[in-house]
Amino acid sequence: MNRTLWIGSAMIGTLLIIILFGPYLPAVDGSMDRTLVLRDSEGTLLVPPIPPSDDYLIGTDRKGVDLWSKVIIGARETFYIIGVIVAVRVVAAFLISIGAFYFNGLRLLMNLWNSFFSFMPTIFIICILLAIPGVMFSDHRSFWVLVIISAVEVGRLAMVFYENLHQQRKQTYMEAAITNGGSRWTLFKNYYWPSLVKELVITTPMEAGRSMILLVQLGVIGIYVNQKFFSQLDRSYRAVETSDAWPVLLSSLRQDIYSAQWIPLAALFAMTFSIIGFYLLAEGLKKQQEIKIRRV
Amino acid sequence: MFKTIALRTAVWLFSIGILVLLLLIPMDTEFEEGRGGSFMGATYDYQVQHHVANIQSFFPYIYETRGLGTDEAGHPIMDQVTSVFVRSMLIFMPAILIGFFVGIAKGIFDFRARKTKARLIGQPATISFLSVPDIAIIVFIQLSVLLLQSYGLVDIDLFGHDQIDNVLMNILYLSIYPVMFIANITFKTLEAEQGLDYIRTARSKGTGELKILYRHMLKNGLPKILAYSNTMVLYTLSNLFIVEVFTDYKGAAYYMYTTLGSPTTFYVGALVSPNIISQIGYIFMFTIVILAFNIISGVARSAISPLGDGR
């Protein structure tokens, strides 16, 4: 009985239900109306953010939108972003690692790429790349942000896959396969590919958790995937996030800690829940594979 | 060992070269203004010759000014960069040191408690701290402090950089990850050492458990733990960025964020990075720190397996 896998699957399953049926769940207001002013039972006026009450389960955000609905509906967009990041990372790392395994030139390139990123903390490099005006004012900024967030970790992931292939090559039965006259393609199809897929099954939820952590960090310093510039009073322009994704709820974290703790708490809870879910799922799958090997 | 250092320095030169290239990208942005100077959009047009010109003027500038030159007010930029950088290191270095010492202690505790009733606050606690995003822990600490403050029990300044409170709190925030990371590595290393033959030999000869743990297992595992320090330093530097920006601690990472023309604000006409020079200064300083830890972990790695210093 693999308890880790069960708990992890249950957590991710809950998230899947929220993603798929979010707007139809009980107590969710799909229209996400804004409440500007509210009068409580004693007749005093309340302005948003409204604290948790009977009307609003976990309060409202600064625009007066019911936070519970916002978190539930925002799940879809959040996981859409995560999905794109993980997909780009995994596919790119797959191609790079397989290429590096067979061609020396590509291996050199991968090592250089890795060493470059090993000298720059992820957040620094993301900020530097995003500040390039060509990216900042691009019409497809969201696209570029996604590409950059994915690209900075591709090298590390490629290294994981490469290491896996390398380990596989060292196995004794590989020698047997070679002496039996297995061609390059047969070896790849029957030995390297299955081992990569096994690694992939564990790595994908792991990466999802990692990208979520990165989104939390970027959210705190004010970088979001969907941003538009809006005019401020002092002739400056501020990027305003135009989405319902969870990291956006952290945008005014420093004020919220004093006045509206429920907003960051809800966002952090949702994100931490999914991160732990992903990690447990990965751990559980790993355990499951070990159990399977033992049985055979 | 010499080879390790030379190799890593070469990679460092390569990295800093690319970063300087990125920072020297020309800022030829044309703003389209609507009525009353409102922002309609901006077009960016990259031209290679401007980039080359930027690079060509950069190196003579560094050479002539013997440092980073002076800002508009005539203060040497180098002094600013170093003083702000020292402020950052004031919270970063203690966090790393605490990470090592407390982390190894926690790892040993986890290892010794793994079969007792106290194991719940051992390894599983370490793992859960590692998987929760740091900012969630930081927010939790801050909310607790605010709660205690509302009862008048403590008086801690949470935001800013000039109080001793700020320094101490930031060290606390920053050291959470390194402690847990090192504890986890220590635990895994000790677990791997435990089954080895020489441990069994030592045990059969009647060596005490504690002596085996410290004299043999930990001593042999230490290079392995040090070898992972690079990852930890990188992650902690990322965290330094978040913590400084979030708590308004005006250190090097904070200024780097604001001088990058932080990706979230800009002024029409005045773009984006007037202080590329100081950014390059900060980048230089930070990568030097990373290089130092990189060399330490590289030397440790080659101490584990003298031949296999490939990575």
From TrEMBL, chain A:
Family matches, as SUPFAM superfamilies: MetI-like
Secreted listed as a keyword: no
GO biological process: transmembrane transport
Protein keywords: Membrane, Transmembrane, Transmembrane helix, Transport
Location in the cell: Membrane
Transmembrane regions listed in the UniProt entry: 5-25, 79-103, 115-137, 143-162, 208-225, 262-282
Main localization, broad class: membrane
Membrane topology, record value: Multi-pass membrane protein
Highest taxon of the lineage: Bacteria
Residue stretches making up the ABC transmembrane type-1 domain: 93-290
Keyword Transmembrane in record: yes
A Gene Ontology cellular-component term: membrane
InterPro entries given in the database record: MetI-like (IPR000515), MetI-like_sf (IPR035906)
Name of the molecule in the record: ABC transmembrane type-1 domain-containing protein
Source organism (scientific name): Bhargavaea cecembensis
Automatic annotation (TrEMBL), chain B:
Cited InterPro entries: MetI-like, MetI-like_sf
GO biological process: transmembrane transport
Membrane topology type: Multi-pass membrane protein
GO cellular component: plasma membrane
Residue span(s) of domain ABC transmembrane type-1: 85-297
Keyword annotations of the record: Cell membrane, Membrane, Transmembrane, Transmembrane helix, Transport
Name of the molecule in the record: ABC transmembrane type-1 domain-containing protein
